Amino acid sequence: MRDLEWFQNLNQDAETKIVLLVLDGLGGLPAVTEGLTELEKANTPNLDDLAFQGICGLHTPVAPGITPGSGPSHLALFGYDPLQYQVGRGVLSALGIDFDLKHKDVAARGNFCTLGEQGLINDRRAGRISTDKNLELCALLQEIKLPGIEIFVETVKEYRLLLVLRAEGLGADLADTDPQEVGMKPNPPQALKPGSNKTAELLRQFLDQAQQLLADHHPANMVLLRGFAKKPVWPSFEDVFGLRSAAIAGYPMYRGVAKLVGMEALEAMDDVGMEFQTVRERWDDFDFFFLHIKGIDSAAEDGDFERKVALIEEVDAYIPELLNLNPDAFIVTGDHSTPSTLGSHSWHPVPVVLWSKHCRPDDVKQFGERACIHGGLGPRLHAVDLLPIAMANAQRLKKFGA
Amino acid sequence: MRDLEWFQNLNQDAETKIVLLVLDGLGGLPAVTEGLTELEKANTPNLDDLAFQGICGLHTPVAPGITPGSGPSHLALFGYDPLQYQVGRGVLSALGIDFDLKHKDVAARGNFCTLGEQGLINDRRAGRISTDKNLELCALLQEIKLPGIEIFVETVKEYRLLLVLRAEGLGADLADTDPQEVGMKPNPPQALKPGSNKTAELLRQFLDQAQQLLADHHPANMVLLRGFAKKPVWPSFEDVFGLRSAAIAGYPMYRGVAKLVGMEALEAMDDVGMEFQTVRERWDDFDFFFLHIKGIDSAAEDGDFERKVALIEEVDAYIPELLNLNPDAFIVTGDHSTPSTLGSHSWHPVPVVLWSKHCRPDDVKQFGERACIHGGLGPRLHAVDLLPIAMANAQRLKKFGA
């Protein structure tokens, strides 16, 4: 079996650097039949040149036909099989805001939402309230006390919050209270395994009190919870791959998943230029840079084809500056596809280009979905295989067997 | 899981023959940016015709990004998953010189080497001493006696030797004494598990005496050991695939790995023409021929791009003669890539063509790395899947399920 321990025995020291540039939600679809995808339409001379010099393909983040969440898709890019290394969204939210989660804690991602008549959900995001409003309401909810446990209610951003329950003997096998649909009532907390019955009861008490406290704070008059989870214990990225690694990402979620495998999350910044500048400034301090660009996915989730095109073009302009740092292996890809025609994550394979002095060139001359089908990485590369290929190109893997 | 027992139940008798022609280290890289690889540059009208008529692709010997040793890469071509069937180099060396290894033996591959001042290794191959000199020195080392065990010191070729310790209760979980770098001292024998402590102590005594005996035999004044291993017990190739099989190879290592799965290793010969002639002469005696050509890899390991090209062209000339024998399935591939620009085995996928009356043609018209990306076998075929495909083309696999 190829597992992380296997790579731990194969990695070797080298004075080489690897960059993984993730354009969130990169893969797309044509807006009209026979039209071009967002990436194909974008004018990307630098990415095209990278494709010409490097090796291209499309990767499957989790499995064929599977639409991945951001956690699993990033774990795959980090070389961790997302079917083996599963983590709840609550844990990722906690890590993303630097909340010091303990292994006994149960964490959940929360949304402030709007309940209308008869307690039905009108808006799962409470009109996207401001972060300031969120801070005020979290302070209110922090007043809730329950016997025998510590409760933490933390602002993430806009309508998003983190709830953490801390006590011995809590279980995280709990159904989401967020039905992820409007026009329905929130689900009552429910244990999926007997070991989580006590936790479900505590959550019922918490949510009852929360609803009373928020009653006069329309549109944020209730909280929806999902992704209950405990922090897992995994081998670290540095131990497995021998890479001192930095994560550069503007959005808490992505710093969170990077920190979960032990990467150092550098200061958050929400500006593409500053992210690239940070790579340059910290170039000597790390062997591996994970650089995450969020805006492309957000545009696609908003169904904004042209904004997605424009943001891809914006990133393209920074490629030469990165190549000037002389990385030994440089991957540009997405964590998953987000076609703006669908307005959501999708199952479609994700374009990827790997550039290195030692990669074997293919015939691909343009970085786009159709062109990448014909690349040397193939049209269905398992995402988890990308990092080992980059490691090989950076000459950081020993020979297997004699 | 598809394991070897599964194929054992699926194979069926047929009057058909399969040939596996392995050009060691076949895959390459361009010498200059945008240039041609060795195989692409070689003038190979016969291999190109085979590609035109057959089905092409690139195979991954072990796993993406993994540079395979010769043992694992050949086991994969024989249909044995190299992650499941692992074997040490010592065992392969023993089999390759027809040494009758017992299951209780511990075998190691040895190099005569040159120690310089302060006991540092100057040359891991002792100036590539002659095989005659090796025979003389092995006879000297064969004089070493240790209580309670039998010791065998056997010449392999040039600077290479085989050491076998025979006694009940020996362990083979031992670190290499060969640091595989010059400028360092040999490592002292060291057990990796308690069951090998006794063996490590015996090796220390052996090496102390060896150093004394070799002191005046500069440049071969010491021995380095690696790949300590015992002979594994595996299902045989004939039992699994129902093929009476012959291995034709000039180099001990490859006859060794073939014998490990129970193939009959025919007389060693180091001449390409004689190898092909042997296939012709023994055509009626076997169902499966594994034909191994070593020189291409040696040229690439020497960094000699043009010699690799010339040797590929030399093999190309023998292809019509092999086709005249009317094989039912004929595979031409490498065990791994050895780009002459790197001068070592590499992780790059390996070109493969499969010819048979029953294979489905693709659009590939040239046998080369870029062209094979577009072949019907795909750019990332798992090497272990090749043999079953050849079996199918030779109509030697039954239908699965009703």
Given the helix and strand composition of chain A, which structural class is it?
alpha/beta
Distance between the termini of chain A: 18 Å
Q: Report the uncertain regions of chain A.
A: none
Give the count of structural domains of chain A. Answer: 2
CATH architecture of the largest domain in chain A: 3-Layer(aba) Sandwich
What is the rounded Rg of chain A?
Answer: 22 Å
Task: Give the biggest sheet of chain A.
Answer: 8 strands, mixed
Mean pLDDT of chain A: 95
**Helical percent range of chain A?**
25-40%
| Largest interface in this structure | A-B, 32 and 42 residues
SSE run of chain A: HEHHEHHEEHEEHEHEHEHEHHHEEHEH
* CATH topology grouping of the largest domain in chain A: Alkaline Phosphatase, subunit A
- Count of DSSP H/I helices of chain A: 15
Quaternary state reads homodimer
What fraction of residues of chain A sit in β-strands?
15-25%
Overall, the morphology of chain A is globular
Number of strands of chain A: 13
Question: Biggest sheet of chain A, strands in spatial order?
Answer: 9-8-10-1-11-12-2-13
| CATH H-level homologous superfamily name of the largest domain in chain A | Alkaline Phosphatase, subunit A
CATH class assignment of the largest domain in chain A: Alpha Beta
Task: Report what the structure shows.
Chain A is of the alpha/beta class and 402 residues long. The first copy, chain A, has two domains: 4-85 and 234-393, Alkaline Phosphatase, subunit A (3-Layer(aba) Sandwich), CATH 3.40.720.10; 92-229, no CATH class. Chain A contains 15 helices and 13 strands. In chain A, the strands form two sheets. An eight-stranded mixed β-sheet of chain A has the order 9-8-10-1-11-12-2-13, with helices on both faces. In chain A, strands 3, 4, 5, 6 and 7 form a five-stranded antiparallel β-sheet that branches. In chain A, α11 packs antiparallel against α12. The longest helix of chain A is centred in the middle third of the chain and has 18 residues, at 197-214. The radius of gyration of chain A is 22 Å and the shape is globular. The two termini of chain A are 18 Å apart. The model of chain A has no long low-confidence stretch (mean pLDDT 95). Chain A binds chain B through residues 1-2, 6, 10, 53, 57, 358, 360-363, 374-378, 380-382, 385, 387-392, 397-402, and chain B through 27, 29-30, 33-34, 37, 58, 62-73, 82-83, 86-89, 92, 109, 226-227, 342, 345-349, 369-370, 373-374, 378-380.
